[in-house]
Amino acid sequence: MTGDWRGAWTAALDELELDVSQIEAMLADERRNAETPPANLWRPPTELGALPLELKPRADEILTRQLRVAEEIGRRLTANRMQMAATARIETGEAVKRPVYVDRAM
C-alpha cells in the first residue's frame, strides 16, 4: 500500500509539474497563441491521503513555480490593459463620426 500511495502522489505531482511547465513555456514564447488553453487542465486527485514527507520539497517547489507564473500572468494582464487604454486614446486622423439628427419639426 505504501508504494501505491507514494506512486499515486508522484504521478499527481508529475501531472501538476507538467501543467506548470506548459504555462511557463507559453509565457516564455511571446509569439505563441496564448488564447488557447492547454488541452488537459490539471485536476487535483481525490482520495490520496496525506502527502508523503519525502515529496514535500518537490510539492513546495512546484507551488513556488505556480505562484511565480500566476504573478507573471497578472503582470502581463495589467500591462495589456494599460496598452489597450493608451491605444484607445490615439487619434487616427479620421474625422470623428457623430450621429446626425435633423429636426424637421420646425
Written overview of the protein:
The protein is an all-alpha fold and 106 residues long. It has one domain (2-88). It has two helices and no strands. The longest helix is centred in the C-terminal third of the chain and has 33 residues, at 56-88. The protein is elongated. The chain starts with a helix and ends in an 18-residue tail after the last helix. The model has no long low-confidence stretch (mean pLDDT 81).
Total discrete domains: 1
Order of helices and strands: HH
Query: Radius of gyration in whole Å, from Cα?
Result: 25 Å
Q: How many angstroms does the end-to-end distance come to?
A: 91 Å
* Low-pLDDT residue spans: none
What class would the helix/strand composition place it in? mainly alpha
Keywords for this entry:
106 residues, mainly alpha, 2 helices, 0% strand, elongated
